[in-house]
Amino acid sequence: MYADQLMDLIRQGEVEAVRDLVRAHPESAEARDANGVSMVLQALYHRQSEIVDLLAGARTEFDLFEAAALGREADVTALLERTSLDVVGDRGFAPDGFTPLHLACFFGHEDVARLLMRRGADVNAVTPNPLKLTPLHSAAAAGSTALVSALLEAGADPDARQQAGYTALMSAAMHGNAEMVASLLAHKARTDLAADDGRTAAAMARDAGHVSIAERLEQ
Fold it and tell me: Do 137 and 70 share a domain, yes or no?
């Protein structure tokens, strides 16, 4: 009922309008879009932190996907106590295609990600959407070397390809993240792979002006 209205407000960053709506209609904080994605997650995706706080603050319960994305470790722990491990494995995808581990990694919640891995989350789960992301891609996109390293140590494939043929090494290289590049290389990430546009990680680093990283990858 409130999803379309909230979605418009989230896109526009209308914090006060969301505040007024939630105050008048607390149930609006539970709204989900036509695909089943909650407005809490949509606000997170749109990086509207104040709106996230407003919506989450009006809620008393969260599903595992929301709790992981919000970094609510206590809620994740409680949910895992009564939820089949399938929900954190390769069958447990949210309506938009992400697992709790993808979400914890993308939003940089290391403690939650490690908890999910300890409980059996699939570190190589591929999103059944056009992005074709693994949790490693999500961690690389978040710029978290600690999460990238933890995933690699747990058996994540360093050379998994996402949409357009990109690997985590390419992401780290183009963003100039030397520490992440080093971690990926230490776990045998291949430097010779090329994305769909024909560029290797070294070429991407060089194109972005990260010459020292490009030179290391070309060795």
Answer: yes
Q: Which domain holds residue 80?
A: 61-141
The three-state secondary structure class of 38 is strand
Tell me how far apart the alpha carbons of residues 77 and 137 are, in angstroms, rounded to a whole number.
Answer: 24
Higher pLDDT, 164 or 84: 164
0.90 surpassed by pTM: yes
What is the pLDDT, as a whole number, of residue 77?
Answer: 95
Residues 109, 67: contact at Cβ < 8 Å? no
Q: Which residues pair with 38 in a beta bridge?
A: 32
Is the Cβ–Cβ distance between 137 and 143 less than 8 Å? Answer: no
CA distances from 212 to 190, 195, 203 (A): 18, 21, 12
Q: Is 147 inside any structural domain?
A: no
Tally the domains of the chain. Answer: 3
Rounded Cα gap, residues 125 and 12, in angstroms:
33
| 68 and 55, same domain (yes or no) | no
Nearest by Cα to 151 from 170, 175, 125: 125
| Domain edge (last residue) among 141, 170, 187 | 141
**Alpha carbons 177 and 172: distance in angstroms, whole number:** 5
Flag whether 39 is in a domain: yes
Average pLDDT over residues 136-152: 98
Helix (H, G, I), strand (E, B) or coil at 176: coil
* Structure confidence by residue, pLDDT tens digits, 150-188: 999 999 999 999 999 999 999 999 999 999 999 999 999
